[in-house]
Amino acid sequence: MDKALLRKKYKNLRAALSTNDIDEMSLEIANTALTLDIWDYTNYHIFLTIEDKAEVDTNYLLHILQGRDKTIGVSKSNFEDSSLEHFLLQENTKFKISKYGIPEPLDGIKLDPNIFDVVFVPVLAYDRKGNRIGYGKGFYDRFLAQCNPTCKFIGVSFFEPEDEIQSGIYDIPLSMVITPKKIYKPS
Ligand SMILES: Nc1nc2c(c(=O)[nH]1)N(C=O)[C@@H](CNc1ccc(C(=O)N[C@@H](CCC(=O)O)C(=O)O)cc1)CN2
Ligand SMILES: Nc1ncnc2c1ncn2[C@@H]1O[C@H](COP(=O)(O)OP(=O)(O)OP(=O)(O)O)[C@@H](O)[C@H]1O
C-alpha cells in the first residue's frame, strides 16, 4: 500500500475510535511504557495531542515524566518550513491550540534538539523495522535528524504494525513502538 493510502487507512481507523477507547488505550500505553527501561534519563521530548485527530493522549506519559521531575520539552510547529522549535515545559507555561489543533507553548526557554535522551513520536502507521509514516510534512524526520545519535525515538500507536513501509531517504527509524498490549522493537 502506498503512503497516501496508509495515511487514509489509519486516519479512518482512528476516527472510528470512541473517546472512551482512546482514553483507555492511552492509559494502557503509558502503563506498558512503565515496564521499559527508559525512565532513568534526564531530558524527554513529548508531543501534545491533537484531540480532533484521535491521537494517543500523551497526558498519561506526561504525568509519569512530571512525577519523576524530568526535563520535558514541547514544541511549536512552523508550517512554513516544517520545523519544530522546542521549549522547556514549566509550571507556568501557557498553551494555545494552533489552527492545526496542536496545543503549543506560547513562549519559554528554548531547548536544543540535541539535549533529548528520549523523544516520543506521533505515528500514523509503522512497521516492525521502525519505519513510520506521519502526516506527511516531514516535521519529525527533520527533528529526529537533529537529535543526538544515542537518543531513543519511541513511537506510540493504538494499532499493530504494517507488514512493510517503504523507507525514504530522510526517514529515521524508531527505536521502538509502544501499543496498549505490546512493545515492538526492531531486532
Ligand atoms: N500532536 C502532534 N503534534 C505534531 C505532529 C503530530 O503528528 N502530532 N506532527 C507530526 O509531524 C507535526 C505537525 N504535523 C501536522 C501536519 C499536518 C496537519 C494537518 O492538519 N493537516 C491537514 C492538512 C493541512 C494542510 O495541508 O495545510 C490535514 O491532514 O487535514 C497537522 C499537523 C508536529 N507536531
Ligand atoms: N531532514 C529532512 N530534510 C529535508 N527534507 C526532508 C527531511 N525530512 C523529510 N523531508 C521532506 O519532507 C516531506 C515529508 O516527508 P514524509 O513523507 O517522510 O513525512 P512523514 O514522516 O509522513 O511526516 P511527519 O514527519 O511530519 O510526521 C518529504 O518531501 C521529504 O522529502
UniProtKB/TrEMBL annotation:
Record-linked InterPro entries = FTHF_cligase, FTHF_cligase-like_sf, NagB/RpiA_transferase-like
Q: Cite the entry's keywords alphabetically.
A: ATP-binding, Ligase, Magnesium, Metal-binding, Nucleotide-binding
* One GO term of the biological process aspect: folic acid-containing compound biosynthetic process
Per the record, the domain of life is Bacteria
Signal peptide interval: none
Q: Where does substrate bind?
A: I50, E55
Gene Ontology molecular function terms on file: 5-formyltetrahydrofolate cyclo-ligase activity; ATP binding; metal ion binding
Similarity section: Belongs to the 5-formyltetrahydrofolate cyclo-ligase family.
Protein's name in the database? 5-formyltetrahydrofolate cyclo-ligase
Protein source organism: Patiriisocius marinus
Question: What gene name is given for the protein in this entry?
Answer: ygfA
